[in-house]
Amino acid sequence: MSALPQAKDLPRHVVCDGNEAAAWGVVLSRPDMVAVYPITPQTSLVEALAQFAADGTLDTEMVEAEGEHSVLSVLQGACLAGARTYTATSGPGLAFMFEPYLRAPGLRLPMVMSIVTRDTLSPQCVWGGHQDAMSVREIGWIQMYCESVQEILDTVIMAFKVAEHRDVMLPVNVCHDGNYLSFGVCRADLPEPSGVDAFLGKPDTNWHVALDPDRPMGVDPLTGGGGGPGPALFARYRKGQCRGMQNALGVIADVHREFGERFGRRHAALVEEYRLDDAEYAIVTIGSMTGAAKDAVDEARRLGQRAGLIKVKTYRPFPLQAMAQALAKVKAAGVVDRSVSFGWNSGPLHQDVLGTLAMLPQRIPAVSFIGGLAGADLTVEHFARALETTAQALAGARPLAPVWLNEGDR
Amino acid sequence: MKGRAKPFFDATRIPGDLAPIATEPSPMLPGDWRTLRPVVDRVKCVKCAVCWLYCPVQCVVEKPRWFDFNLATCKGCGICAQECPQRAIAMIEEAA
Description:
A: six-stranded mixed beta sheet, globular, B: alpha+beta, two-stranded antiparallel ribbon, 5 strands, 19% strand, elongated
């Protein structure tokens, strides 16, 4: 095994795509074991990690498993043995990983996994969209969506601290948009390695459940059933899991604050409000689309419109209070989803916004926009249209069905 | 349930609503959930030991003139009865 990389050996700045930025975040977080299986559009992330491991930049045990099901199973064993673990996948890879993916949150395993988001089959496609990550939004993993290449690097690091917090103990998905972030090249700054070491501390993954000869225990014994202590025991574990998710909201905010204080880069932890304080209406965005959406808001402002924007960074657990506070400032909202909720004929984020609005004293219209599916670009023009439609909803003309933003693209 | 389990280590500081774990062995033995029990016909048994070879939980016990079963650990699978060349073992339903 090669010597640990010295701080002076790592660059302070890199110019790279979002996948490589995630890999740099992994380098700095020093996981004990990494297992990854390549799949578009995550492949260059695997290549970067393999190269870093070969160079000695990343001192970790790289496991080449035969597929994603094995990848996550291998890492669960490692996590139970006390290792800090990382993996990354996308679309069909996530689907193949589903069985161990279901198990991780219930076992309270603090793993970190990037989802390089991709639209789901079929129609056959290999391009970005949020449908894969959104399809697993109720499995119990924490989900944070990144807006920029820099935010990916920083969020991968923060994810380990959130996951391993003793009040949380849950796996975290760091989601970044396939194509637009995975292959978009930008400058990114690396936080100081010894600072990251101090920020994260030593891996703390198996104090509560372990494969450890000194603490022999049955891991995940049969629990539940119709009689005896089973029902109460199962309810207790499920309730604990929900509590961990709720605790995560506060921990995510704290971790983002501490990261900002330590490294000088601040990212909105739960929800970002953009030009919202005097806004009449706002669009709600998630992920990399937010850049173009902010430009569209700026343009609307230049034309005298009182437009604003609410960006969701933490999607699961859903930041209900932060979202309610933001929505209380406007009289109409337009929610842009990069995926579909088939059950509701709208977007998943739109459903969460409707749920939040039920908490507010005043009922306001919330329009559903669906766009950016399967690699489609969401441009400033698309957002200008979304803003205009939302303004019309404020005036009383509210579309009852979702507006498909790329429907008229030529 | 017979007997009392002893915990392997002090797990009291692990919250009871986190990961599902078992920190003490179950005192139950296979005989506690058996539905069929093997009964040997002592006249037919020739002590060939085929049952002893096949028993998956090794509950076959040697007696002076025949083979018998430790019913605490026998789970009632009936493999012995299936394999016995003398047809000396019958599987009898346990009383409810």
